[in-house]
Specification:
Elements lengths: L9 H12 L4 H13 L4 H14 L4 H13 L19 H13 L4 H11 L6 H14 L1
Length: about 140
């Protein structure tokens, strides 16, 4: 027969000691209920519990040191910085120059007017559209 040693639950003991020290504290009571339901607390909650336990003064320093070690062992959860906002579509300046050059010579060119409306509405000009523009521009010379 193996002897099973019961695990020592420092968090539970500190919670119970804090409930005795602060019987009407809603913070401690909610932490205790959550600990019983989930079986664990977050790092921030444990830090709050440690602060309350230190203020109580009646809790053994060894328990406080163990709780502090548990907190230090937990990973820090930090959010990464948001990337800078960049426009979804950047206009191709070369295409804009080709469009203005063609329309300055032939202001009623239907295909180029259509491409100009696409360009001004920030729609992506396909490779075929760009080759058309280059072909029209080379025909101007």
């Amino acid at each position: 027969m193996e002897k099973r040693t019961p695990k020592i639950d420092i968090v539970n003991e500190v919670l119970e000691d804090c409930i005795q020290a602060y019987p009407v504290s809603t913070f401690i009571i909610s932490l205790y209920k959550q600990y019983l339901q989930r079986g664990s607390l977050s790092k921030k909650q444990l830090q709050g519990l440690l602060g309350k336990a230190i203020d109580a003064g009646s809790i053994a320093p060894a328990k406080l040191a163990t709780l502090e070690a548990l907190i230090k062992k937990m990973p820090n959860r930090t959010k990464s910085e948001m990337p800078e906002n960049t426009p979804l579509y950047q206009k191709d300046e070369a295409a804009g120059e080709l469009i203005t050059a063609i329309l300055s010579r032939y202001p009623e060119h239907k295909r180029v007017l259509f491409l100009q409306s696409k360009y001004e509405n920030n729609e992506v000009l396909s490779a075929a559209d760009l080759t058309d523009l280059k072909r029209f521009h080379s025909a101007l010379k």
